[in-house]
Amino acid sequence: MTDAPLREVIARHGLSARKGLGQHFLLDLNLTGRIARAAGDLAGVTVIEVGPGPGGLTRALLTTPARAVVAVERDERCVAALAELEQTAAGRLRVVSGDALAVDLVALAEAPRAIVANLPYNIGTPLLLGWLRQLDCFESLTLMFQKEVAERLTALPGSKSYGRLTVITQWRAEVRTLFTLPARAFTPPPKIDSAVVRLTPRLHPEPAPWQTLERITAAAFGQRRKMLRASLRVLGNPEELLAEAKLAPTLRAEEVDVAGFAALARALAAREG
User: Fold this and answer.
1) Which of 78, 90, 121, 251 has the highest Cβ tally under 10 A?
2) 224: which DSSP letter?
3) Which domain holds residue 268?
4) Shortest CA distance to 22 belongs to which of 199, 256, 190, 194?
5) Do 18 and 86 touch, CB atoms closer than 8 A?
6) Residue 94 domain-assigned?
7) Which is higher by pLDDT, 10 or 100?
8) Rounded to 5 degrees, what are φ and ψ at 165?
9) CB atoms within 10 A of CB 257
10) Does 137 score more than 80 pLDDT?
11) What is the pLDDT of residues 140-198, one digit of tens each?
């Protein structure tokens, strides 16, 4: 592995962070090492890293017993910098140039595979929603988000952060916040702190059709201040749906747990055949 300091690599390749790409580089090797360790036992696992930038976390991942690391990077400047690391990684690093929103990560490596990434802030949520659809293909996801996004992922019913993203995520995964990082740890510093979250696939998720659950949660949280008997009216006869799901019509979306939303999705799917 290259011994060139990260700041030297950044200077040599002109890697000033680009706001349009949501880039905030984490250069402290103690912190990147902590993230790599937080991903758990990676022995024999191919780790897929999204948005590696100049390669700080990539270096940390290469020190783990992972079978290999696949780094997906959109910024061609960073791809050139990562190529230097690739040449010294004894075949354990593969750099893929591409937009993570358009790349099928499952096709990049054989199982077992895991994702470990300091996600670009501007696409973190859409990336997560796409990966949740394929979650059974991964051992785990260890991801860094803006702290407010992490709070939404781990929120409990009745809290202000509990919402549609919470329900979809917790329906498919066990979610745990591991630790937070202050804004000053990044170059350039973002406006808010960040948090590292670990997601593992639920062995027995509540049965529910994905698209129907998305429709239910969109309707319910689209008018979260209203009672469900009003917010679900766009789906037709809400009283009937709520009765089948054994939910009180006076509940609001934020008061319904994941199992309740899954029951609503099953009732709607059954009604629509």
Assistant:
1) 78
2) T
3) 210-272
4) 190
5) no
6) yes
7) 100
8) -60, -40
9) 15
10) yes
11) 999 999 999 999 999 999 999 999 999 999 999 999 999 999 999 987 888 899 999 99
Helix (H, G, I), strand (E, B) or coil at 3: coil
Contact 90, 69 (CB under 8 A): no
Residues 153 and 260 grouped into a single domain: no
Amino acid at 259: A
CB count in 10 Å sphere of residue 240: 12
Mark whether 140 and 262 lie in a shared domain: no
Reported as a single tens digit per residue, the pLDDT across 46-101 is 999 999 988 999 999 999 999 999 999 998 988 989 999 999 999 999 999 999 99
Half-sphere exposure of residue 132, counting CA atoms within 13 Å on the CB side?
Answer: 25
**Neighbouring C-beta atoms of residue 30, cutoff 10 Å:** 8
Q: Is residue 84 part of a domain?
A: yes
Does residue 186 sit in the same domain as residue 84?
yes
H/E element holding 166? helix 164-172
| CATH (domain of 256) | 1.10.8.100
Look up the CATH number of the domain holding residue 109.
3.40.50.150
User: In sequence order, what are the beta bridge partners of 70?
Assistant: 48, 94
| pLDDT score recorded for residue 138 | 98
Distances (CA, A) of 62 to 10, 137, 229, 258: 19, 22, 53, 37
Least confident of 41-50, 119-128, 225-234: 119-128
Nearest to 89 by CA among 195, 1, 180, 200: 1
Segment 43-47 mean pLDDT = 98
Residues 184 and 261 placed together within one structural domain of the fold: no
Reduced to 3 states, what is the DSSP secondary structure of residue 271? helix
Please tell me the distance from the alpha carbon of residue 266 to that of residue 241, in angstroms, as a whole number: 9
pLDDT confidence of residue 273: 83
